[in-house]
């Protein structure tokens, strides 16, 4: 048995989709089809698929524990709010189509723990759970979202603070300023 | 998300659970039973 290197979870920044999953409003990862279950940690698995020799047209799931330094797997968190906010509206890198109706996008802080790979601008971890959720008050087009209060109430199922943040999804810089002001006011 | 190249790997075991777990519902208190009558036995 080995003693842990640290005894406090790492707090990082990340962005989520807010989706409707079987009638429940949930957070979803941006890249892979992972819904974050309230009051239950998300546990990483490597979702990379590798060629299966000798039938190279077949691919099988990678079987190593996530994360490793050699792979890119794990649950991601960024050091800076700016970095996470840049992913709020950029969908170009999404790995697969979204499975659920997209209601909104959220940014927030995430607790990371377990096995953790520290990278230059963030971390990849084996375990994660939201620490704080911020919902921008306006969509990418700048329109106010009428159902925002309902979304915030539904996301309170995660048992962590859910805050509305006055900002427009497309204006990442202004959003980050507002985020930092909220974080400093805690 | 591009977070750059890996630098090191370590283990983190938080002393406090980062997950606000659902508190288990307290089971309904069992109804108090009347103490059973002591069984009468013939004295020797």
Which spans of chain A of ≥5 residues are poorly predicted at pLDDT below 50? none
Question: Strand share of the residues of chain B?
Answer: 15-25%
Gross morphology of chain B? rod-shaped
Number of helices of chain B: 0
Task: Tell me the series of helices and strands of chain A, N- to C-terminal.
Answer: EEEEEEEHEEHEH
Q: Kindly provide the radius of gyration of chain B, computed on alpha-carbon positions and rounded to a whole number of angstroms.
A: 29 Å
**What is the multimeric organization of the chains shown?**
heterodimer
Shape of chain A: globular
Mean pLDDT of chain A: 86
Largest interface: A-B, 44 and 21 residues
Secondary-structure element series of chain B: E
Count of separate DSSP helical elements of chain A: 3
Structural class call of chain A reads mainly beta
Number of structural domains of chain A: 1
Residues in helix, % of chain B: under 10%
Major sheet attributes of chain A: 8 strands, mixed
List keywords for this structure.
heterodimer, A: 186 residues, mainly beta, eight-stranded mixed β-sheet, two-stranded antiparallel sheet, 3 helices, 10 strands, globular, B: 44 residues, rod-shaped
Structure at a glance:
The complex is a heterodimer of chains A (186) and B (44). Chain A has 186 residues and is mainly beta. Chain A is 14% helix and 39% strand.
Commentary on this structure:
The complex is a heterodimer of chains A (186) and B (44). Chain A is mainly beta. Chain A has one domain (10-43, 75-184). Chain A is built from 3 helices and 10 strands, in the order E-E-E-E-E-E-E-H-E-E-H-E-H. Chain A has helices at residues 81-85, 148-155, 172-184, and strands at residues 10-21, 24-28, 35-36, 42-43, 49-51, 59-61, 75-78, 102-119, 122-138, 162-168. In chain A, the strands form 2 sheets. In chain A, strands 1, 2, 3, 4, 7, 8, 9 and 10 form an 8-stranded mixed β-sheet that branches. A two-stranded antiparallel sheet of chain A has the order 5-6. Chain B has 44 residues and is mainly β. Chain B is 0% helix and 16% strand. Chain B has one strand spanning 6-12. Chain B starts with 5 loop residues before the first strand and ends in a 32-residue tail after the last strand. The model of chain B has no long low-confidence stretch (mean pLDDT 79). Chain A binds chain B through residues 2, 4-10, 14, 30-31, 39-41, 67-69, 76-79, 83-84, 87, 111-125, 129, 131, 158-160, and chain B through 1-16, 18-22.
């Amino acid at each position: 048995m080995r003693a842990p290197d640290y005894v406090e979870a790492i707090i990082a920044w990340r962005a989520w989709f807010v989706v409707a999953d079987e009638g429940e409003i949930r957070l979803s990862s941006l890249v892979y089809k992972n819904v974050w279950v309230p009051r239950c940690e998300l546990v990483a698995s490597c979702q990379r698929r590798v060629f299966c020799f000798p039938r190279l047209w077949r691919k099988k799931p990678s079987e190593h524990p996530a994360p490793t330094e050699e792979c890119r797997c794990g649950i991601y968190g960024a050091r800076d709010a700016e970095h996470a906010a840049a992913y709020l509206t950029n969908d170009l890198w999404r790995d697969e189509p979204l499975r659920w109706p997209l209601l909104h996008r959220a940014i927030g802080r995430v607790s990371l723990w377990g096995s953790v790979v520290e990278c230059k601008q963030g971390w990849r971890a084996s375990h994660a759970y939201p620490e704080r959720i911020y919902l921008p008050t306006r969509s990418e087009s700048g329109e106010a979202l009428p159902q925002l209060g309902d979304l915030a109430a539904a996301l309170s199922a995660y048992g962590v603070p859910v805050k509305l943040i006055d900002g427009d999804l497309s204006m990442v810089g202004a959003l980050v300023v507002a985020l930092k002001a909220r974080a400093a006011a805690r | 998300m591009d977070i750059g190249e890996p630098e090191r790997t370590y283990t983190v075991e938080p002393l406090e659970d980062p997950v606000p777990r659902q508190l288990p519902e307290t089971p309904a208190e069992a109804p108090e039973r009347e103490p059973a009558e002591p069984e009468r036995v013939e004295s020797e």
